[in-house]
Structure formats: structure tokens, C-alpha cells
Amino acid sequence: MSTAEVVNGRLAAGSAGPSRLSRIQSFLARLDPIGLILPALILALWQLSSSRGWVNPVFLPEPRTVASAFWKMLTEQDLALDFLASVTIVGQAFIYGSLAAVVLGIAAGLSRRVERFLGPTFDTIRHIPGIAWLPLIVLWLGLGAPAKILVIAKSVFFPVFLNTLQGIRNVDKAHIELAQALTLTRWQLVRRIIIPSAIPNVMVSLRYAAGLAWALVVVAEGLSGLEGLGFLIFRAQGLLLTDQLLVCMVVIGGVGFLIDRSMYLLQRRVLRWKQGFEG
After folding, report:
1. What does the alpha-carbon distance between residue 152 and residue 136 come to, in Å, rounded to a whole number?
2. Which of 13, 165, 170, 183 is most buried, judging by how many CB atoms fall within 10 Å of its CB?
3. What share of the chain has pLDDT > 90, as a percent?
């Protein structure tokens, strides 16, 4: 390797370093500590009420007791495996339900005939809660993961489907007229005008559906199954293990927060071209 190549390589590494450092600094600058105030107050009130005996420890154990239960469940029990089972079910249900919803939503949005064909059936099924389907689906598929995936995917499907359909129907008429004036083909109209205009609605619905899927896995696993966080919650309730119940609730809430933040960041990245009111 020549001297010039070595120098150029060092310069490139040096230029990459500050860029990476600046990205980290930018990320830390966006962290808003004001969001930590309310959780800190809740934790302080929890500790105070437990230590002073305002609430029976059976109903609300101290935070350190819950932390000890978390460590015990993680090291001596199967908390990690139950967590992995729940995440696997939610991931599959979200992918299947949202993918089918986007495809059929686009088809219905682009064709009135497709919408009229699907509308009566979908509007009827949509008003039957997913949990109401669970006993029947368990009879068909048993107590395994497929039954839970199908129930959650059904609940994920309709918000995404309706928002995709509405996003396509809300395309600005002026954009359609401009495309017609430019003599764009049907495919060009869909690819360059309709789909980009509908993406904001789709992204918002996907963010909502991801949180909904994670919340529903608790009910699905609690009512049918022998593993997962939902099963642990219902078991802890039956055995009056309040510390383990709170562990599962904290894990579910924390993971739900991470899912929502991840979808929000994905939404910001996909829609970086669309700037709106920041408040």
C-alpha cells in the first residue's frame, strides 16, 4: 500500500469519527428529561405508600421486592422464554395482518368494485371483537400459537385497512388533475401520486396497530395458552403473586413504549419529506 493510500485512509477514518460523534451528540440532545418527571413521581409515591404501610404489601409490594422478583423470574424461571414467545406471536401477527391490510386497502382504494365487494363482509366482521373469535378459533386450531396469531392479526388488519383505504381516497384532487394534464399512465399515477399521498395514513395506522398487537397478546395468552407474558399475568393473579404480576406489567409497558418509539422513528424517517406542525 502506498503512502498516499495510507494517508487517505487515515483522513477518511478521521472524518468518519467526528461524523459519528456528532450523530451521537445530536441524539442525546433530542432526549427530553421532562418525560422522566412523571415516572419518577409515580415511583416515589409507590415507594412511600409501600414503606409507610398505606397499602397492604399483598396488594402493592415495594419496588425493591418487585425488582427482586424480576431477577428471580429471569434467572430461576422462564421469563426470557415467555417474553420471546410473546414477541414471536406479536411479530408474526403484526406482519401478516398489516401486510394483508395494506394490499387489500390499496386494492379497495383504487377500485370501487373491490370496495363494494369487500365492504359488507368486512364491515360485519370488523364489529366482532377479536377476543370473541378466540373460543371458535381455539376449536379450529387448538391452544397453540396459530390461534393467537390469527386473533391478533384480525385486530391489526382493520385499522390498517381502513386507514389505507381512506388515505387513497383523500388524495388531493388537484394532484389527480395535474397527473391527467401530464398524461400519466394509470401505473404512473398510482406510483407517483396516490401511494405517496396515502403513506402518512398508512404509517400512522401501522404505529397504532403495532401497539394494539402487543396489548392484545396479553389477553390472547391469558385466555388460551401455557406460555407468554399473558399466561404469567393470569397465573400470578390466581396465585396472588403481586410482585410477579407487577414485573410482567412493567415489562409489557416498557416493551410497548419501545415498540411505539421505534414505529415513531420509522414514521419520521419515511415521512421526512412531509413537515408538519411541531407544537
Report:
1. 14
2. 165
3. 32
